[in-house]
Amino acid sequence: MSGMMELYDDGREPSRSARLLAQVQANPALPALGSAVVQVVQIASGDDDAVQKLSHFILSDVSLTQKVLSAANTVEYRTQSRPQVTTVSRAIFLLGFDAVKTIALAMLLVEGLTGAAAQLARQELQQALAASLTGRELAKRSGRRDGEEAAIVALFKNFGRLLVAVHDPRGYQEIMAQSAEADPSAVAIRVLGCGFDTLAEAVLRDWQIPGTIIQALAPLPSGVLRRPSGEQEWLQHVGGFSAELASRLFSSTPGDLAVRQRQLLGRYGAALQLDARALDELARYVAQEATALAYSIDPAGLAAPKGDGGATTPETTDLHEFLLTPHTGDAAEIHPEPECYPSGKPLHANDLLLAGVQDITEALAAGKVSREALMMLFAEVLLGAMGFRFVAVCVKQPGVQQFHAQVAVGENGMARRNGFVLPVAGGNDLFHLAMQNNVDITISDASQPNVRALLPGACAALTAGALSLVILPLILGGRPFGFIYADRARVAPEGVSAGEAALMKTLKAQLLARLA
């Protein structure tokens, strides 16, 4: 990597660019950030497993989950007649897989690199989102069905700027101050000794980002560009154009935007088959969407959007004592916190469950939701609406006499999912008794000896630490098909209200209707 930069100013002292790269690579957070970024990049679209993997990844980060849900609840994506989006799966259905993936990548890059220059980094967030939106729109307008790679290339095109903003804020401000009459990348070469693209490439190669993406970040020749000869060159043109358009739209330097767009059209018009009208439409769309998205996921770090494009400011007797029945006690005795009971269950769980029922109803009505995607949505609804730490949907596996977790969300979701295996032939434990009798079970205090005695040894490790739990059997054709398991790490003396119990049964009925 070092060979791509001039390492020494006079043969003895490291150049400014080399010192900057060394400082970037010395960042202790960079390896973990790179691992997370690569993980998201490698999640391909187009199948149910991809939606599940992306949902799992986002749910593992509370802050990221909040950002995605916030974006899904902006005016641009949700009308007044629709309920609040409360699950990541629903957000993916609503925004689209690629859009949510872009938001996740952008937030990882910005939040993973913040520090003393946090505000400068957040200013770059808007441009990164704008560039990515531009790449996806260009792919769509060119007839390409998959705009994901173009969107990622465009997003990473701004990565070098972000690195400089975080690790050399004085250099970044110097570059921006000189960029009114010159291309920022050219100014960066003059100020730092290397371009933004070179710095980004060095780090992305360390992260082992796919070569097609890195190659598309290479600087373009100066002057008017000709039509690309192949897909790789097209990606390179898209990345360059997207970054330049985003820079022009959100630049803080003085200048006439119309003049800048004419310059952009003169350079890229023929290569990307854009005319003045198409460029104007694209610029308006990108400016509005990027502003709304950036503001919705980071309102504190950006000025509120203005104008029309802005957004306005997530055996039966053995089971009797555990049956899922309404709680009649006085909830006021529990001294709830402002938003949740001490157990972690939201005070407005009934409203959240109702929103989940509506989400699943819409997904089923659309006719495009698969069994696995619906299981994921169901699990997320329970996780958020009832404040569980972990939810698993376990079904009988074909060809083997076992129930296995098809979907699992929450704390250590993926690890616990792989270990959640229960034999179909069972004994006197809560799981099998619930399925044999087709009764829903809720346990407010799972630390009691009579409860622990009814938990199967096969699931001892998976239920460890569970102090309140729910088991909902899935019965098809009179036979056990599986069950839903959910738990919390705290006791839940507030129990389950009549409305909550009814809505949980409705959710289960929706899932069973799709599984049948």
Summary tags:
516 residues, six-stranded antiparallel beta sheet, 6 strands, 8% strand
Summed up, what is this model?
The protein is α+β, with helices and mostly antiparallel strands. It contains 24 helices and 6 strands.
How does this model look, in words?
By secondary structure, the protein is α+β, with helices and mostly antiparallel strands. It folds into 2 domains: 29-297, Hypothetical protein af1432 (Orthogonal Bundle); 317-515, GAF domain (Beta-Lactamase). Helix content is 55%, strand content 8%. Helix 6 (97-112) packs antiparallel against helix 7. The radius of gyration is 26 Å and the shape is elongated.
Number of strands: 6
The main sheet comes to: 6 strands, antiparallel
Give the topology string: H per helix, E per strand: HHHHHHHHHHHHHHHHHHHEEHEHEHHEEH
What is the CATH first-level class name of the largest domain? Mainly Alpha
Using the 3D structure, state the CATH architecture of the largest domain.
Answer: Orthogonal Bundle
Q: Which strand order does the major sheet show? A: 3-2-1-6-5-4
Instruction: Give the overall shape, derived from the CA principal axes.
Output: elongated
Helix residue percentage:
55-70%
Number of helices: 24
Question: What would you call the structural class?
Answer: alpha+beta
Q: What is the averaged pLDDT score?
A: 80
Give the N-to-C terminal Cα separation. 56 Å
Question: What is the chains' assembly state?
Answer: single chain
Point out poorly predicted stretches: 1-8, 302-317, 326-338
Q: How many structural domains? A: 2
- CATH superfamily of the largest domain, called what? Hypothetical protein af1432
